[in-house]
Design brief:
Distance between the termini: 23 Å
Protein name: Peptidase S1 domain-containing protein
Low-confidence stretches: 1-19, 141-145, 248-255
GO biological process, one term: proteolysis
Number of strands: 14
GO molecular function, one term: serine-type endopeptidase activity
Radius of gyration: 16 Å
CATH superfamily of the largest domain: Trypsin-like serine proteases
Shape: globular
Strand order of the largest sheet: 6-5-2-3-4-8-7
Family: Belongs to the peptidase S1 family.
CATH architecture of the largest domain: Beta Barrel
Largest sheet: 7 strands, antiparallel
Mean pLDDT: 79
Number of domains: 2
Pfam family, one: Trypsin
CATH topology of the largest domain: Thrombin, subunit H
CATH class of the largest domain: Mainly Beta
Helix content: 10-25%
Structural class: mainly beta
Order of helices and strands: HEEEEEEEEEEHEEEEH
Strand content: 25-35%
Length: about 260
Amino acid sequence: MLALKTITAICLLTIFTSNTKADPIEKTPYLVQFLDKKSNVVCVGTLIRPQYVVTAAHCFPNEDGRHITVVGGASDKTGKGIKRTISGIKIHDQYGARTMHSDVAVVKLDKPMEGEGVSTIEMCSSDLRRGIFLQITGWNQANKQTPLSKQLRTISARYAPDAMCKKYYKRYVEHDSMFCVFGKEVKGHCVGDSGSPAVYRGEFCGINAFGHWCNHGGQPNALTHVFRVRDFIEKAIEELDQVDEYDYYDYDYDY
């Protein structure tokens, strides 16, 4: 099993592999990129309302979001597309780098994300069953030595049995806000796709959280269970609706 230090170090990474297929943004118009000052993709988010994005809480550990550009409607990571800035963030009050569970954040954009290649997706309306297959989309890296893909890619991953999940991550996934996926296309976490959405039957049901190091096949990856954190997401939106200007102290870190 991974040590805490190892899991914490890789939690900004992704699960995609070089042989996954490229997809146009029209297939996943709810997917947005978070770009840093150098236009690197640091995380991915899911547009659930025109002005609100859901992503992983660990995507904002040290900075307040004012230096991040949010891009929608783009199939590649060139930074082209519909751009927005961040006006507020709410992080789940049970999330912490030591516990890893409840890894979810709600991001308010400075104005609605609207235009070509952009639309919202509904959140998961029911609990998930073991054995189902979810579709996960993002920008993959084949291994630690290769660059991120320039195009969106999608994999199919199966909801893992609890025993498999706990075998690798134990207490990090014992909280009911987390679940695991596995499959031949799941090769461990590489770089850049934290927060990628997992979709089941057209609904947003999982948030890519953490997993084993790059190109380790046969080991599951952990995701945040959207249905089980839905109350937090809806409450966060209500609270952020009341905030007109960005306030650093809206952050609710727990370290």
